[in-house]
Protein 1
Amino acid sequence: MVLREPKSMDKIPEPTLRRLPWYLSNAKLMKEKGEKYVSSTQISAQINIDASQIAKDLSYVNVTGRTRVGYDVDMLIGALEDFLGFTDKHKAYLFGVGSLGGALLCDSGLVHFGLEIVGAFDIDPNIVGTNIGGIPVYHSDEFEQRMRNDDVRIGVLTVPISIAQEITNKMIAGGIKAVWNFTPFRIRVPEHIVVQNTSLYAHLAVMFNRLNAVIKKE
Amino acid sequence: MVLREPKSMDKIPEPTLRRLPWYLSNAKLMKEKGEKYVSSTQISAQINIDASQIAKDLSYVNVTGRTRVGYDVDMLIGALEDFLGFTDKHKAYLFGVGSLGGALLCDSGLVHFGLEIVGAFDIDPNIVGTNIGGIPVYHSDEFEQRMRNDDVRIGVLTVPISIAQEITNKMIAGGIKAVWNFTPFRIRVPEHIVVQNTSLYAHLAVMFNRLNAVIKKE
């Protein structure tokens, strides 16, 4: 017997993927409030997304609601966490222990969402050999050697822009399959490599621009 | 005489705003390499965006290139930093000094991009009254009082999801005009308030999903 997988998991649209964590946080909130069931209509009222859109998004996830009752809150939370990959442990290395890199090492929240940073790399003799947020910092030269022992597929990129591409190339040559790029640099990668850009500075620029527009109107 | 403002600054499309920091980091890199001029064709070759798109995006910025020579690198960097708001100091408060909030207080990189966090609020007696990353942590009850003295318009939201909406409402009632929302909670705000969502966890979910799809194909 072949187990049926949830509806074409690898073809889920990115907007849906981005909305699912909203439903998850909403379901967690309902659970905190003591609710046992939650309907897409209730979620809709709270986060201002169309109930039919929510039902459609949730159809990708392996969870079934009951008519007039809605989804079992615990089951919904479990199904969403599984689906989003937050219950697996994805091991990662971090490259570049500067200000942002060091800050991310200290953010224990990431591990609750499935990202376990098991080591960091830098060349600064003042930090190589130390632990930051409980995570060991190795010299960058040790990367290839460590990759052979650790089962790591994700690299978090927090290096200066001047070496962003060079370090990316080195990561990929060593076997990294997904790069979480926090630099404002647009890195180039081969087709089969996943890149997730999270540029805090680009988000700041958008926010400043919108804020200026609002202030001008006042 | 009325000074002409750069081409309708408050109507610049968001995709353009998101690409401009890439051009900025690329121009900085060219400067580091000792280049005096850079053309949109050169930028295009390095970051894999169409040269005509780059020229169009840069037309929003107050900078003019010279035929066959390109843009003066220093002028381009200055114009982009000005335009993106990175040279102004935008004062901000941070709400919720947990793991991520504390990490952001330690990220001195934000101030180089125009965001100056001048205070943080929490209710935990162990951290209220301390300094984290040089930034004072106040009790949340002091927010309204402090708002009257400080010229702050931006609030960074890093509280637990259970109080994300409540704290947002409080921020706005106190005079905050823009909310940088790091929680995975979809906050609701009045129309004239700017919200910038930066959910690291949503980005993680997208990355895990894409990575799983790649691994399955191998």
Note: The CA atoms of residues 42 and 51 of chain A lie 8 Å apart.
Protein 2
Amino acid sequence: MKYVYKFGGGKAEGKESMKNLLGGKGANLAEMAGHPSLRLPVPPGFTITTDVCTHYWQHKRTYPKGLRETVAANMKIVEKLAEKGFGDPSNPLLVSVRSGARKSMPGMMETILNVGLTEKTIPGLVAKTGNERFVYDAYRRLIMMYADVVMEKAAGVEAEEDMGIRRQLDRLMGEAKEKRGAKQDTDLSADDLKKLCVLFKERVQQVLGKPFPDEPMEQLWGSIGAVFASWMGKRAVSYRRIEGIPEEWGTAVTVQTMVFGNMGDDSATGVAFTRNPGTGDHRFYGEFLVNAQGEDVVAGIRTPQPINENSRTEQSQEAKSLEQLMPAVYKELHSIRDRLEKHYRDMLDLEFTIEHGRLYMLQCRVGKRNGPAAVRIALDMVKERLIKAPEAVMRVTPAQLDELLHPIVDPAAESTHKPVAKGLPAGPGGAKGMVVFNAQDAVAWAKAGKQVILVREETNPEDIEGMRAAQAILTARGGMTSHAALVARGWGKCCVVGCGALDIDTTKKRVAVDGITLAEGDWLTLNGSRGLVYAGSLPMRDADEGSEQLRDFLAMCNKLRKLKVRANADTPEDAARARAFGAEGIGLFRIEHMFYGKGSAVPLFFLRKMIVSKTLEERKRALAELYPHMKADIKATLQAMKGLPVTIRTIDPPLHEFVPHEAEKLAELAKSLDISLEDLEKRAAALRESNPMMGHRGVRLGVTYPEVTEMQVRAIFDATAELLKEGVKAFPEIMIPVVCNEKELDDQFAIVSQIHKEVLAEKGMRTLPHLVGTMIEIPRACLVSGRLAGVAQFFSFGTNDLTQMTFGFSRDDTGSFLGDYLNKNLLPGDPFQSIDQDGVGELMKISVERGRKVRKDLKIGICGEHGGEPVSVGFCHSLGFSYVSCSPFRVPIAILAAAQSAVKDSKGKKAKK
Amino acid sequence: MKYVYKFGGGKAEGKESMKNLLGGKGANLAEMAGHPSLRLPVPPGFTITTDVCTHYWQHKRTYPKGLRETVAANMKIVEKLAEKGFGDPSNPLLVSVRSGARKSMPGMMETILNVGLTEKTIPGLVAKTGNERFVYDAYRRLIMMYADVVMEKAAGVEAEEDMGIRRQLDRLMGEAKEKRGAKQDTDLSADDLKKLCVLFKERVQQVLGKPFPDEPMEQLWGSIGAVFASWMGKRAVSYRRIEGIPEEWGTAVTVQTMVFGNMGDDSATGVAFTRNPGTGDHRFYGEFLVNAQGEDVVAGIRTPQPINENSRTEQSQEAKSLEQLMPAVYKELHSIRDRLEKHYRDMLDLEFTIEHGRLYMLQCRVGKRNGPAAVRIALDMVKERLIKAPEAVMRVTPAQLDELLHPIVDPAAESTHKPVAKGLPAGPGGAKGMVVFNAQDAVAWAKAGKQVILVREETNPEDIEGMRAAQAILTARGGMTSHAALVARGWGKCCVVGCGALDIDTTKKRVAVDGITLAEGDWLTLNGSRGLVYAGSLPMRDADEGSEQLRDFLAMCNKLRKLKVRANADTPEDAARARAFGAEGIGLFRIEHMFYGKGSAVPLFFLRKMIVSKTLEERKRALAELYPHMKADIKATLQAMKGLPVTIRTIDPPLHEFVPHEAEKLAELAKSLDISLEDLEKRAAALRESNPMMGHRGVRLGVTYPEVTEMQVRAIFDATAELLKEGVKAFPEIMIPVVCNEKELDDQFAIVSQIHKEVLAEKGMRTLPHLVGTMIEIPRACLVSGRLAGVAQFFSFGTNDLTQMTFGFSRDDTGSFLGDYLNKNLLPGDPFQSIDQDGVGELMKISVERGRKVRKDLKIGICGEHGGEPVSVGFCHSLGFSYVSCSPFRVPIAILAAAQSAVKDSKGKKAKK
């Protein structure tokens, strides 16, 4: 087994595709150093493989046999290439020892620099560099890092709070600066640093009971061991858990010749992107510092200089660019940039150092970019023929695409502000506004032209107007599918829910959080994509939803995908927006949504009358009053979709949800029904249920009150018939929810067919195009899908409810335990966010198989919240769904996810061949 | 195809095994008449097959070709055997035309007697019988039946209410009697009847527009058609729906020579059972009337006489027996009884008629019997070597066995009282008592020595003491698995729930129902096996639960069954009862049940403290106080089971269920926690959930509060260790409920294993016998059963919850729609009563398959309410379960059902060979 891969001098044993073995950093260094078309100036070094890490942890922190010898042999080669000697007093070689995992784990593992500096090698380096201060600065850095990382952490020494060696050395350095009246580290002289190094070593001996090692090889092995040890460090373990990185991957260790950008004014160090990571602009972009080390760039003490004109920022208006200062080096760097992009066919993030006018490449990896940049780079690279459409589609993550669809908090501003609270990311994008505490205030303030954020314990349907008027909604309770979350997501509105840290006092109109108290009118900024709450007003960035880039990108996706994408829309406006985003139909029109929001007062009143009716006659009267409103509502939406299918779900929620809570509305209702308030309250109380989610709802309402189904179906067919007569295409798909049994469908479809006949006769028409189908949201429905498919022409999975019943998790009540489940890693994630493929998905699979067995052309869709979640979309694709349906603002995401699924499929097929 | 099967004269074309073709009646007549070892005196006749019925309905109510000729030919044969002529004026043959389905449908179809009586044949019959009154009485009966059944009903004439021909003729007869001053029909003279017949025929012509037919053949075909027509009559159709009899079975028609028991004192008619159907006593039992027709026996106008001494009742003390009156005929009848029993190897129900001293057998079928009789006959017939054990076990239905286990309302009394209301049969047997309206009154009155029935809107855990004190519980709301039902069934206590007709006023302490009002203290009688409510105090019959018969019968079952039977028991008393009934372990010990009922006040208080604790410290303090109570409770039950396995379920219900409702108890709790009442109410409110059934319960409590699991496991192991040290065997099985995911089990089993280690160390023991397992009650758990079986040593299906989640039916809320579902036939039955095999059962199948694939010896049981329901027990047997567990009083039922399943299995296997 080969444990060590060397690189340098225009050759390398490794390559980029060996990331699993060499880690990202090692593999890319090898690629840059050794690939025939690159052979870039990379300081020589070698990488110890991840296999050694695995061995190390499986064998009580020991190394495979022969490793020491192999490392020693490789050090010899490095010495030769660097033309220096490790421990050579006159011409010493210093090396860095760095971690490198298969997947980047920024800041989670350890690095030790300047390894090889000892009492013996210091004078030689001073002589060679002529810079005593530089050498002692390097030495004190080595002592600080080594004592902390190797001698304390990796050795498992547990220090009391604030008494760790790093903190102690920091304090010593602080005292030295104070003594000197020095403000910055750089104000310390060579002599100061020299003395400090003596103090450091004394303190190390005193605290850790061991001397700081003065043997280069001891330093090297100490550093290698510390990097492997850091793979099991607390931070790394918890990061892996969150990111889902398996423990068995391990880290590699790269040992590399140190080069120094702080050797004087002909030295520099910098980072660059082959294209602008914030816009995608196809120009070289980066910054550097003269006479500095890499960590100085990161630390941000000095303002970096732009590498070229294109990279100038407001802060660097006056600074000279690399192009100006060192034109030859810049030219070389630019040419390397071109070669690397052509080679990697992606935008890259580079690190370079210039030592005495000589350029070295220290790192290269695929560069992080924001959403707009990702889209633009993908499109540009297709035009440049670097990549083809399928690859371009894979280059943009759904989260990046989402950035284009909503205004967001300016990332720069967000990076410098600390959130006061964190909740669940329930509605996308960012928003800011003045705090209000009830729906009426939200409406009134918004009318007065103010931006407001509605802050509530939790919301209910009576808050709808206020929610609509607000820029965003923030609640203290509720989960990802709570009322606020569902409504906000449907509107594409920013929303943070379940923010338990809020202590809201609605009567006094104030909220306390994180030690501060906000009163009505105070500003708040929300990041709904990450669930963050900021006090005050942060700058925002506009959405790109109408941009040409987005349109082109989605067009590219559309050509590739097989899965159709529909939107969940309840109003003609939503329907129009959905069409604009490319929706190919409406997958869920919730008939009851006409009872929420704008213009709902009148129909809601009739609905309430219907609900509390006690006799068939009372109910029929209320239904007749309701009918024209319902017909108009349906007609407008069918019209907006111009013949694209519109799946209309018959009334679904438990009726009690609609019973008013306010005394005034109750009184009005009682009056109109000509019954006493007491009587009305009795009727309302009778509707209450122990577990309404599993109560009298959906098809069960249709079974017990056939006249309610009749009225709805009548409204659908009348609307369709009128449109057709007016020359407008219309195609309703009637969907029955909460079905567990084919006989329920027989019962309801008999009504549909009867009303269909009646409407045809009345209007003198031959047929009205339509489909009848069912929602699959009850576990039993999945099991008896064969029988359901015998009568239903389509299935649409309601994965919210299906998830509830399959887990026995009431989505309104998971708040009390889901956090613990996620913390303890008992669940891989919130199943209401991404479909649980092992459980819920298994039922879906059973359902699809049994359904399609009976009806080959069964149309199958999903209309739950998962329909706009990329992983779930991929799962639906893999099950052979006909379409997914999601809220209008998620349509682009679904389109992308569908296209990516199709690309993965064809890759998989190619791989099989 | 043969459509007509004749019998008579010692021969028959049909036989008993041809029931599907000839109906029960026709097949048994053929068997009696024609079987070589019987050849009984059966009046000659023939049966038209059920195939003709099917043809009749499939071909617009017409007959197969050639049927008329075949019937005519068979009539000729009957005439010859009867030595009479059909329509012969001097020696006329009269026949009966009767229905006969494969399965008895008593009173659901039609019968016409005396067919063949016409103007022409009347004088001949008068001359032959010398009894003009008898002949005209027969004639008026024929007209009444024929006009009603053939001319009106079968012809589809729809009469207005109260204007049907039958009612009109009844009124005419009433008028005739009034005119005469006659009290009874028999007070009318021959002349009166003669005149009445004239009036009848006029009225028939007038109302139905057709004359009453005077041709024998016309009468015969009219009657045959009417019987076939009655197969589709409303009553028959609805009866078939309820009983699950398929429409395509059809009815046969039997045409048979009439014999008359009302020909004078040498004539008689009677019914008999070959053994006593009320006790099973192996002696001939029956009653008869001299000079009477069959319908006179049924009508109950004259008191029947006993056929022998053994059949005397209180009413017939003075009457002469058949044995005394006609010793020769009795002897013949007795010998027929002996031969029939030997032939059929079962207790039979016989009908006979004696015409002028000559005995005729008119019917024979397997006799209905009550529970005690069924058990005794089965046991006796094994002793008599008539049948073997497997057959004997099949002879007793679970419902019959159940009769032995509970006191019941005297069936005789029940048959003469009309219930005032009907609810759901939630707890078995019968009970009576004085009405009380709250738990406190129930306890107080019971202490005062009174029998009470607790009447509530619905019950909750705070009613427990009152429920225990009451003879029975009656509620207006709730379903088969409501609190009242669950508790009552657990105790084997009579209970009727969901009796919506009750209008209860608890403040005024009265209940209105069916037009009457009962006040506190008024008597009420309940039949909990049928859900009936009677006003007043009806006589009762004691239970036989301790009888030798039951013991012997269960011993016979035990030898045959493969499925083990356990009991659900929460107290040492329940455990002891379960053992007495033959339970082989406890399948469900609900740890939280120590917080209900007797002696629960102290532990419940600590539990409540634990529940409303806000800090870990508060909770741990409360748990420490709770621990000794829990340990004592568990220890007593383990001890009672003497080493038989006891499955202990960790705490399951949502905690909010335990929060007190009364102000007084809340105040006490607040005081003991040293917090304000307001604060306590806040904490209690925070526990409330939207859908508690799918909320923070079961394993989810254990995950969020590991210390709660720790305390429970500690109590279990400490109790076990103490018993073992005391020399008592103990075997706990620790069961984690509401699991959806193997990681939940990892989490909880880690606690079990930790505590196990601790207890071993403390007690200085090597091992404590125990198993760890899980309840399967969440759909997802079924799907991931493979993974669960990787860690769990046993599964126990909680089919109550599994049914809830699989259907999305909250068992507390189905009341509002389940009735409509059953009425509309959308569901075959209440899935909370018998397992839904298509949905819930499918999940169980998947679970068993996946679980056993991973762990071959996985112990699988059921502990839901279905575990004591016979059909469900059979289903569990078919899935290869290890055991079923049910409430102690259902243990014998489960034992029987398990034995019957095993017998069916081996029959099936034999049939395959």
Note: The longest helix of chain A spans residues 616-641.
